[in-house]
Amino acid sequence: MKSDDPSAGIDRRTLISGLAALPVAASLLPRPALAQGSSSSAPLPSWNDGPARQAIVDFVRATTDRSSPKFVAAEDRIACFDQDGTLWVEKPIYTQVVYCLDRVPAVVAQKPALKSRAPFKTILSGNREAIAKLSLHDLEEVLAATLTGMPVEVFQAEVNKWLASAKHPRWKRLYTDLTFQPMQEVLQYLRDSGYKTYIVTGGGQDFVRVYAQRVYGIPPEQVVGTMGGTKFGYAKDGKPFLTKEPKLLLDDDHAGKPQGIHLMIGRRPRAAFGNSVGDREMLEYTGAGDGARLMMLVLHDDAQREYAYGPANGLPDSKVGTFTQALYDEARKDGWTVISMKNDWKRIFAFD
Amino acid sequence: MKSDDPSAGIDRRTLISGLAALPVAASLLPRPALAQGSSSSAPLPSWNDGPARQAIVDFVRATTDRSSPKFVAAEDRIACFDQDGTLWVEKPIYTQVVYCLDRVPAVVAQKPALKSRAPFKTILSGNREAIAKLSLHDLEEVLAATLTGMPVEVFQAEVNKWLASAKHPRWKRLYTDLTFQPMQEVLQYLRDSGYKTYIVTGGGQDFVRVYAQRVYGIPPEQVVGTMGGTKFGYAKDGKPFLTKEPKLLLDDDHAGKPQGIHLMIGRRPRAAFGNSVGDREMLEYTGAGDGARLMMLVLHDDAQREYAYGPANGLPDSKVGTFTQALYDEARKDGWTVISMKNDWKRIFAFD
How far apart are CA B155 and CA B210, in angstroms? Predict the structure, then answer.
């Protein structure tokens, strides 16, 4: 076990590199991006015709047509989706990390002794250069202080409140508005075809569960993420409650993704979608099963409409959502389909 | 919200009314101990009229009737069931422990060095007196040796093979035949009423998942149990696989049950069923929520048709499925319903 931090699944090596781009404040204008419930006769309307869209349609047809040799029984239709960079924007830094940094003032208000201590003092200073230089250990301390130590219902309320007001620095929109419309359509298309859709994220399981239902149409029990322990206790009125503990149960990234899938689902997915080296083992595990399987990787190659990054694009590795050349080569070799945001998607967001 | 259950859109009443028109004489068909897919106009046919049956029917009506002040939205209908002693026989010892003891010869054949070592040597001797005296530590060693160290698929195949032949000493039947028919009817009745049914067991999550679908109609992802870690690796042909590791992630008993429910489901159940002190915290946690809640405990008070045991019966504590007087008192105080096997159940097993 690498650490006792429940959010250790986040690739933290330099995830604070984008901190300088963050806004200082956000105004109130809640407008959640709801998962669209409709399916038309032509699935995936936000996708251009091409090999990526075709791979999805072919897979669904092959596995749901009873006359197909690749037909899959309804109960075995499991599809897993990474979140950051696959279902929504992950730049300049992971949304959950923004949340943790934004929570620091409130945490310090409750525990004034933290005010003069290193990472908290730096974050409170608002000095973006200094914040960007925080060590991994410093960041872990911030994550533990902001994600644990409170009853689960209190945490859920805090996340909900933050999501209703915090805005992305580039689009000036709620983070939950920044889901990829083409991927929302894939989720809906698969569900309409009898698939159970799961999120399998390196982010905190409890964090993503707060909004997964209204944003993606995915219930809490179908969110697999980095898992922390809880502690059972009784309130003064005798009512039992669970407190989030700074104890890591499973780091749901890289090899942790198939481990998390086994733990939470108990069977091998038929389809898996990712966008970085953290998803490689999940796609390998999915592809190692018999029959029809669908493995896809989103390539961020659209600097104009979203972002372009990663060595597979010939661009520097920004350490968030790393898509290496080796991953690209493995995709080609193993028949995984790479989705070009630039070429395969007619639009990126529902508001486009 | 839309359910991800692919059959959620099917009108079950229509299906059932259509069944009556079928020419096949259902009574002539063999009646396996499988979860029955049918519900009649009178639910829970193996239950006698009384407060226990009434509590279940009242709860379902109150939470599924849209005009009821206690109506519960479909997505919040979660019901959790302990397994050992609640859904099937747990005497003379837990079925999974029988499996582990039965596996010892095969494990020793693979690792001959174990043959002369303490717990394994004792078990191989067949000396029941000596086996009954094994310490908890000895037993844990046996569990680790028989439940871990192999790929998950190998484990599943071994359990399936054992279940197909091992017989209970009293009834001389497969263990999977020894589920309680009245509880199978509760599972089905709740599912027919839009509830997601979960097993929440102190037994091994991977063990119970092997047969939960065919025996209870519960898919692997709806089995919450004691959880072990897995290790991700690659076979010689490059295919990835998971190995079961002797690493405890969560002991799903007592306080571990609400913890496991939070981890695996992420929301509080509406109904919980148990039979021992290991289920107390799960029932307390369920009861602490708002609105209609159903908490029930099976009391084993039928020595003739099954077993009678536990201090709440005025009988000695046999350490398996302990139902203490304190638990009984808490049930009365908090409005939990105690199910008397003797008085509430017309029959115990499907083969009765």
Answer: 9
A81: tokens are 């989706």
Distance CA(A108)–CA(A124), nearest Å, equals: 9
Helix axis angle, A95-110 to A205-216, nearest 10°: 120
Q: Which pLDDT belongs to residue A88?
A: 98
Q: Is the peptide bond before B258 cis (omega within 30 degrees of 0)?
A: no
CA–CA separation, A213 and A175 (whole Å): 15
Structural tokens at position A82: 């990474």
Q: How many CA within 13 A on the CB side of residue B249?
A: 29
Cα dist. B60→B77, B186, B190 in Å? 10, 10, 7
Nearest to B193 by CA among B335, B26, B61: B61
Q: How far apart are CA B180 and CA A220, in angstroms?
A: 30
Q: Hey, is B8 helix, strand or coil?
A: coil
Q: Which residues pair with A80 in a beta bridge?
A: A198, A272
End-to-end CA distance of chain A: 43
Distance of CA A47 to the CA centre of its chain: 21
Under 8 Å between Cβ of B19 and B37: no
Rg of chain B in Å (alpha carbons): 21
Angstrom distance (rounded) from CA B14 to CA B71: 23
Cα(A182)–Cα(A44) distance, rounded to whole angstroms? Answer: 7
Q: Give the pLDDT of residue A35.
A: 42
Q: Cβ–Cβ of B152/A262 closer than 8 Å?
A: yes
B8: contact with A, CB 8 A cutoff: no
Count helices and strands (H / E) in chain A: 12, 7
Q: What are phi and psi of A116, to 5 degrees?
A: -95, 5
ipTM of the complex, rounded to two decimals? 0.89
Q: What are the beta bridge partners of residue B294?
A: B271
> With contacts defined as CB-CB under 8 Å, which chain A residues touch B267?
220-221
Q: b/e map of B183-203 (b: 16 or more CB within 10 Å)? A: bbbbbbbbbbbbbbbbbbbbb
Type of residue numbered B348? I
Q: Nearest CB to B259: which of A77, A218, A232?
A: A232
Tell me the pLDDT tens digit for each residue of B185-238. 999 999 999 999 999 999 999 999 999 999 999 999 999 999 999 999 999 999
Chain B residues within an 8 Å CB radius of A37 = 2
Average pLDDT over residues A64-85: 97
Single-letter residue type at B245: E
Say whether residue B334 is in contact with chain A using an 8 A CB cutoff. Answer: no
Asked if B220 lies within 8 A of A265 by C-beta distance, the reply is yes
Count CA within 13 A, CB hemisphere, residue A192. 18
Tell me the per-residue pLDDT of B51-76, one tens digit each, with 9 for 90 and over.
999 999 999 999 999 999 999 999 99
Which residue blocks in chain A are alpha helix, DSSP H?
51-64, 95-110, 118-125, 128-132, 136-147, 152-163, 181-192, 205-216, 256-264, 280-287, 325-334, 341-344
From chain A, the residues in CB contact with B240 under 8 A are 258, 281, 284-285, 288
Determine contact, residues B16/B334, Cβ cutoff 8 Å: no
pLDDT (average), residues A125-149: 90
